[in-house]
Known about the structure:
This protein is α/β, with parallel strands linked by helices. Helices cover 34% and strands 19% of the residues. The chain starts with 10 loop residues before the first strand and ends in an 11-residue tail after the last helix. The mean pLDDT is 92.
Amino acid sequence: MVSRLIPVDPFDLVIFGGTGDLARRKILPGLFRRFCSGQMPEGSQIVGAARTELSDDEYRQMVSDAVAEFGGGRACEEGTLDAFLKTVSYVTTDAKGDGGWVELHGKMRDATVRAFYFSVAPSLFGDLAERLHRFGLATPDSRIVLEKPFGHDLATAKALNATLAQHFNETQIYRIDHYLGKETVQNLMAVRFGNMLFEPLWNAQYVDHIQITVAETVGVGGRGSYYDKSGAMRDMVQNHLMQLLCLIAMEPPAKFEPDAVRDEKLKVIRALEPVDWHHIVRGQYGAGDNGPSYREDVEDPKSRTESFIAMKCHISNWRWAGTPFYLRTGKRLKARASEIAVVFKDAPHSIFGADAGRHRNVLAIRLQPNEGMTLDVTIKEPGPGGMRLVDVPLDMSFADALGPEAEEVPDAYERLIMDVIRGNQTLFMRGDEVEAAWAWTDPLIEGWQARHDVPKTYDPGSSGPEDALMLMHRDGRKWREVKA
Ligand code: NAP
């Protein structure tokens, strides 16, 4: 299978925060891989911007080191890195000052797509947006790319959106949720809306429940002070899990176009029922053999922030009335694994009798590791001795199905940056989506704060607190195993 490579138009991409962690780990290596694949056209340039004083050559060395460390080892023709580095330059710029802006303006060209990546703390977004206008860098067609977090709650998200709206139209604002750039997440839409097989069954009549799990093995690490103000709800559920929920639950959009898709996602968020607090389990990892506890990590022995959350939600609409959606995410769990599992109902009648046991079709969509899908199908257990049933997976690993081409599949950041250059907002969050997501999460957070809720401690390397298992057991269901 040969993947088609569609080059984008030549562009000027300014990375504010070009010396930061995200730029070095994701953005710059991602751009290099696109260059290496031939998708970044001649005449494009990348300009790093931050306060640190660096010459162009010193910045190129930083970029070269980042590509060596985080580039993913993709084989490129000899000389490719040198050619890529020639497209890179650096301007010392302060988002809060006036230095560097005139020089940056001098680098912009008229006939190219202009994009500004805000890879800096959200507190600087307003300053950058204002200066891009004041110094004449922003054109009506320029794009800005923003990293999460988009606010801390509904009020701050609204304030941020309002600040940006003073300087840019919504069509110019690209809010990144890198989960939407993952190959499997987009495949979710292809599977749902490109096949006849699933969509007729994709509703409360046939689906027993849906599980979404995003499990990490790492703790909060060096992000402790940020994470402790945020927690799993704000850091993961309000954005990543919510986006996955939307794609699983939304109605088919009329077209695969940005606002058609985003309108449908918004309807899902708005149809989410408030969650009963009995249906939320919050956890915090304790100390283990290979690491300190959450409270030690964040250096607050009384912290009540959750590093794990499990919850049961309902969507009030015709398609999903009565079907529970179980969401779960956490740190220091037994495996790094993300998956969505659609668990179908039992067949209405078993012709094989009670001895055949209970069998259910499960469509599991793996986001990581080993992106792919599995469909559990019930068959006869091979061999003599009557009709015994067994569930076997029809397993489609994209790496196996697509062969070496799968190696070339761009990672989420690569794909999303190219979409920014193309001007395609389908995989980016609209302001009203972000606000609707906060409007749903805010009362839950306020609820546990008012109750002085203390998260349950769980063992690192486990599947989370016992109460999370009980959340399912009470309903006669169980979580799928968290396994890599
Ligand atoms: P970081 O490592 O702390 O880098 C911040 C960058 O901003 C540095 O390049 C810094 O360079 C620059 N900066 C700080 N103050 C500035 C100012 N006044 N004017 C111009 N530049 C300034 O942070 P990061 O991890 O890269 O994160 C960047 C953004 O992405 C944050 O909003 C973060 O929440 C988000 N994010 C990061 C990740 C990740 O994996 N790292 C993942 C998701 C979202 P100087 O000090 O030289 O100015």
